[in-house]
Specification:
It holds the Pfam family TraB_PrgY_gumN. By secondary structure, the protein is α/β, with parallel strands linked by helices. Helices cover about 55% and strands about 10% of the residues. It has a domain of about 170 residues. Strand 1 and strand 2 form a beta hairpin.
Length: about 280
Amino acid sequence: MTKVALLIAAVIVNLTNAQNNNNSLLWKISGNGLSKPSYLFGTIHITCDAALSDKVKKALDNTEQLCLELDMDDANMQAQMMQGMMMKDGVTMKSLAPADDFKIVDDFLKAQLGYSAEMLTTLKPFMVSAMLYPKMLPCEAQSVETELMKIGKAQNEEVIGLETIAEQMNVFDAISYQDQMDELVKTAKSNLKRDIAEINDMLALYKTEDIEAIYDFTQKSENVMTSKYTDVMLNDRNKNWISRIDKIAKEKPTFFGVGAAHLGGEQGVVKLLRKAGYTIEPVK
């Protein structure tokens, strides 16, 4: 092949790659009866750097309200979450683990949180695991949702939620308490090392803005909370959100912020919105 032919082939490959490169955490929603576009953004709930890009800030400027997974400025949010954190039917963490494993968890939680497992034993184990997230970062934890809310409030915009606190808390009743406890035991036995490695990988992946790779990462996770319960954690919720996104977006242009893992996959929000008749375009 001549040098000219090689050059032309390289240009064609580069153009094809550019056209297929849909890596973006921010997506424009238009068509299907919308008078003005809305935007869909994949967030990460805990990070070392929650700074928003210029394209995200511009999308916030071009919309009239902020919709997150939950209405995070609801004054009753904390009280409602507390009600949903407890296991049902008298199940306790102590009843879900052999005595030696419970002792390991007890010592671990005392060291990491300053609370004994006995004090937290009625909580869903996942909720206890969530309390450990800030310990997995080498920095003071930041939240993308908090940064979005700061801008929303500065623009005097309403903050609403795609699901109720009760709906989100019920997710963790649909996931086996035993599996939740088994994962907490693994975390304690590794002294967070396994979890720190996974969250570091996720943070690096988030920066690539590759929503399909982010979704695939959850499917391959050693933590069964995501890999085994994809339908409960992601797919079922995605399906419930589509009709709600449709209604909200048709009322006024809205900036939707949901966990990035919800965007990718055949049953992700991006493809489900396309199936619902919307034009969904990555914002570069």
